[in-house]
Specification:
Layout: E1 11-14, H1 16-20, H2 30-43, E2 47-52, H3 65-71, E3 79-83, H4 87-95, E4 100-106, H5 109-116, H6 120-136, E5 140-146, H7 159-171, E6 176-180, H8 188-198, E7 207-210, H9 218-228, E8 232-235, H10 255-264, H11 273-287, H12 294-306
The protein binds magnesium ion.
Length: 307
C-alpha cells in the first residue's frame, strides 16, 4: 500500500557542464564540452546549465563559454542556461544567444564575501541591475542561493535571512530559485522546515533544491523535498564536480542516482537514464577518472563484467 503522496512528475536541472566542470582542475577541450552537452540533450533533459560567463581569469575552465554555447546542438523543449556574475557577463551571454541566465548569491555573509567578494546586500543590488536588464531583453532569470542549509565558515544559517533574499530575487523577476546545500550538510528534518517556511512566501513550483551528497544525505533530502511538494531538483551527471570545500569528497547529487530512484518510484522525468550514463561515461573518459555516482559505478561494473 502506497501511503506517500509523491508528485507524478519531476523536473531535473542538469548542472554538470557548469557546476561540475568548473571545479575540474584540468582544461577540457571545447569540443569535449560540446559533445557532453549534446549527449545530455539526447538524454531528454528539459533544463541544462551549460556554462558561466565569468572573467576567464577567475574560472579559466569556463573561458570558452561563447564557443561552447554556440557549438551545442539546441533542441526545442530544452532550456539551455548560463550563469552571469555581472552586466558584462550578461552582455556576453546575450551575444552568444543565451535565453536563460542565472544569478547567484549566498545565505551567509562570510561565504558570499569569500565566494563573490561582496556582501549579500551588495550582491543583491548588483544582481537587481543584471536581472532588470535581462528581463527587459526578454531573457528568463533563475536565482541561486548558496549555503542555505549550512555554511563552511559560519555553521548555522538563519532561515529568515533566506526568506528575505528569496523575496528580493523573486521581486527581480526570477522564475525559480534554486536553494543550495552547497557543502552537503542538510538533513531531512531541516529540508522539511526550510521548505515549509519558504512555501509561505514562494509557490512550491518555483522552488528548486540543489543538494550535495557530501555526507550521503542527498537522496533522503530529495525524498523529503518530494513529500513537501518540491518538483525541481538540480543534479550533475555522474556526480561531476566534487565538493570545493572538501577536496576529494562528493559534491553535487549525481543525476543517475536521483533518476534511478525516481524511475523506480514511477515518477516521470522525461530523462533516459541509460543515455545519462553514456554522457557520464564520455566525460569520465575525458577527465581520465571515474565519477562518484553510485548508479554509474554499478552500471559500468556490470557492463565491464559481461563484455
Ligand atoms: Mg553544486
Amino acid at each position: 500500500m502506497n501511503k506517500l503522496a509523491l508528485p507524478p512528475k519531476v523536473r531535473i536541472v542538469e548542472v554538470g557542464p557548469r557546476d561540475g566542470l568548473q571545479n575540474e582542475p584540468d582544461r577540457i577541450s571545447t569540443d569535449d564540452k560540446i559533445a557532453f552537452v549534446n549527449l545530455l540533450t539526447y538524454a531528454g533533459f528539459s533544463d541544462i546549465e551549460v556554462t558561466s560567463f565569468v572573467r576567464p581569469s577567475r574560472i579559466p575552465q569556463l573561458a570558452d563559454a561563447t564557443k561552447v554555447f554556440q557549438g551545442i546542438h539546441q533542441v526545442p523543449g530544452t532550456r539551455y542556461s548560463a550563469l552571469v556574475p555581472n552586466i558584462r557577463g550578461l552582455e556576453d551571454a546575450f551575444a552568444a544567444g543565451v535565453k536563460t541566465v542565472a544569478i547567484f548569491t549566498g545565505a551567509s555573509e562570510t561565504f558570499t564575501r569569500r565566494n563573490i567578494n561582496m556582501s549579500i546586500d551588495d550582491s543583491l543590488t548588483r544582481f537587481a541591475v543584471v536581472a532588470r536588464r535581462a528581463v527587459d531583453a526578454g531573457l528568463n532569470v533563475r536565482g541561486y542561493i548558496s549555503v542555505v542549509f549550512g555554511c563552511p565558515y559560519e555553521g548555522q544559517v538563519d532561515a529568515g535571512r533566506v526568506v528575505e533574499i528569496t523575496k528580493q530575487l523573486m521581486d527581480m523577476g526570477c522564475y525559480e530559485i534554486s536553494f543550495g546545500d552547497t557543502i552537503g550538510v542538510a538533513v531531512p528534518t531541516q529540508i522539511e522546515s526550510v521548505v515549509t517556511l519558504l512555501s509561505d512566501h514562494i509557490p512550491l513550483s518555483r522552488i528548486a533544491l540543489h543538494l550535495h551528497d557530501t555526507r550521503g544525505g542527498a537522496l533522503a533530502n530529495v525524498m523529503t523535498g518530494l513529500i513537501c511538494g518540491v518538483t525541481t531538483f538540480d543534479t550533475s551527471a555522474g556526480g561531476l564536480g566534487g565538493c570545493p570545500y572538501a577536496p576529494g569528497a562528493a559534491g553535487n547529487l549525481a543525476t543517475e542516482d536521483l533518476l534511478y530512484m525516481l524511475d523506480g518510484m514511477g515518477i516521470e522525468t522525461g530523462v533516459d537514464l541509460s543515455r545519462v550514463v553514456e554522457a557520464s561515461r564520455h566525460i569520465s573518459e575525458v577527465i581520465g577518472r571515474p565519477l562518484p555516482s553510485k548508479y554509474l559505478r554499478a552500471a559500468l561494473a556490470r557492463t565491464n563484467s559481461v563484455t
